[in-house]
Design a protein that fits this description.
It holds the Pfam family NTP_transferase. It comes from Hansschlegelia beijingensis. Keywords: ATP-binding, Carbohydrate metabolism, Glycogen biosynthesis, Glycogen metabolism, Nucleotide-binding, Nucleotidyltransferase, Transferase. The protein is an alpha/beta fold and about 425 residues long. It contains 11 helices and 29 strands. It folds into 2 domains: about 250 residues, Alpha-Beta Complex (Spore Coat Polysaccharide Biosynthesis Protein SpsA, Chain A); about 110 residues, UDP N-Acetylglucosamine Acyltransferase, domain 1 (3 Solenoid). A hairpin with a 5-residue loop joins strand 28 and strand 29. The chain is globular. The termini are far apart. The N terminus is likely disordered.
């Protein structure tokens, strides 16, 4: 038997993070045709899942499992390349847990709870005292040690990470109805009339999909749930409502454990589940004082860093000057006589002469031809933009050729370019 993990603070050293990273992410449209949502690129050089993983690492958690399912190759490759530094001799572990039909030949992961249930034997080998269940598809910085401490001190059966949102907007979330001591007295899935918070009637508490459990308690629940033919085997739909009804569920306010540098004024959390939300969250980073500080060395966002040369800006003549303003430009990029404004260029992007790029999220290894004008676009990895292409000026034409959102953002893929 492995040695028991330590009891008492810091609690993170005795915990295991279990990251749910198997989602389809269908609302991101063609961005998830070849990759799971957690593997989608974000912030100039990272992937979405890097935020949950970095939070766990920075919080002091050294045992992590990642459950994958749909279109997992890109995600698995990224995790193998960028997160392979955990060492067993230091009581660390990083397990990739694809849906491999380990319980039954016909059973993939049936739901979020089932993803944990199917890996109970692997988790038991590490004997963690607590399980921190995380969604792998949100953008935020959070110290899970604070949530673990509240869980232990409150004696809760489950502690649920919650975000304060405007009550008028809470109908899109699972909402926690809490008393004055933050005990959850009702869980409401996308209610038409969300309950307000004690003392803050215009605010509601929305679930972040983050849960802390004592390990033995969780395993007992999961085994019972697995035997229930009427269950959807999901934390939000089955496990959490059951605990709220018959046990002790406590809400943890994100504002208490949100990690902020001196420049970050408000707690930052984003679900980048639509093309518009994804576009806006990336462009948030180009602000003079961004709402999310990626430059905070006290809470770094780790990722796989490709070995590429520095970014390069060439040509310096009127009408053909390589420049970028209010933009994030990654290594390996070449801005050759082009102007880039309020944009993110991921690794290895090339922007050729006389081209103007404005408010664009350009994924790795895109080549943008000469004399293009691109505005309000997301360009998928590896796309070759032909010379003189104009996007963002004629809404009707854009909608005929590309995936255009309600807010006017155009998603461009290579197959769309090939049809021109």
């Amino acid at each position: 038997m492995p040695p028991k993990t330590p009891l008492g603070p810091p609690y993170a050293r005795g915990a295991m993070a279990f990251v749910l990273a198997g989602g389809r992410g269908s609302r991101l449209r063609e961005l998830t045709d070849r990759r799971a949502k957690p593997a989608v690129y974000f912030g100039g050089k990272s992937r979405i899942i890097d935020f949950a993983l970095s939070n766990a690492l920075n919080s002091g958690i050294r045992r992590i499992g990642v459950a994958t399912q749909y279109k997992a190759h890109s995600l698995l490759r990224h995790l193998q390349r960028g997160w392979n530094f955990f060492r067993a001799e230091r009581n660390e572990s990083f397990d990739l847990l694809p849906a491999s039909q380990r319980v039954s030949e016909g059973a993939w992961y049936l739901g979020t709870a089932d993803a944990v249930y199917q890996n109970i034997d692997i988790i038991e080998d590490y004997a963690p005292r607590h399980i921190v269940v995380l969604a792998g598809d949100h953008i935020y910085k959070m110290d899970y040690e604070q949530m673990l401490a509240q869980h232990v001190e409150s004696g809760a059966d489950v502690t649920i990470g919650c975000l304060e949102v405007e009550r008028s907007e809470a109908s899109a979330f699972g909402v926690m109805h809490v008393d004055e001591r933050d005990r959850v007295i009702a869980f409401l899935e996308k209610p038409a009339d969300p309950p307000g918070m004690p003392g803050k009637p215009d605010q509601a508490l929305a679930s972040m999909g983050i849960y802390v459990f004592d390990t033995p308690f969780l395993f007992e629940l999961l085994r019972k749930d697995a035997e229930d033919p009427n269950s959807s085997h999901d934390f939000g739909h089955d496990i959490i409502p059951q605990i709220v009804k018959g046990g002790k569920a406590v809400a943890h306010h994100f504002s208490r454990s949100c990690v902020r540098s001196s420049s970050e004024k408000e707690p930052y959390w984003r679900d980048v589940g639509t093309v518009d939300a994804y576009f806006e969250a990336n462009l948030d980073l180009t602000d003079f004082v961004p709402a999310l500080d990626l430059y905070d060395q006290n809470w770094p966002i780790s990722t796989f860093a490709e070995m590429v040369p520095p970014a390069k800006f060439i040509h310096n003549e009127d009408g053909r000057r390589g420049q970028a303003v209010s933009s994030l430009v990654s290594g390996g990029c070449v801005v050759s006589g082009a102007c880039v404004t309020e944009s993110l260029l991921f690794t290895g992007v090339r922007v050729n002469s006389y081209t103007e790029v404005e408010r664009a999220v350009v994924l790795p290894y895109v080549d943008i031809g000469r004399s293009c004008r691109l505005k309000n676009v997301v360009v998928d990895r590896g796309v070759k933009i032909p010379p003189k292409l104009v996007v963002g000026e004629d809404p009707e034409l854009d909608a005929q050729r590309f995936r255009r959102t309600k807010k006017g953002v155009c998603l461009i893929t290579q197959s769309m370019i090939d049809r021109l």
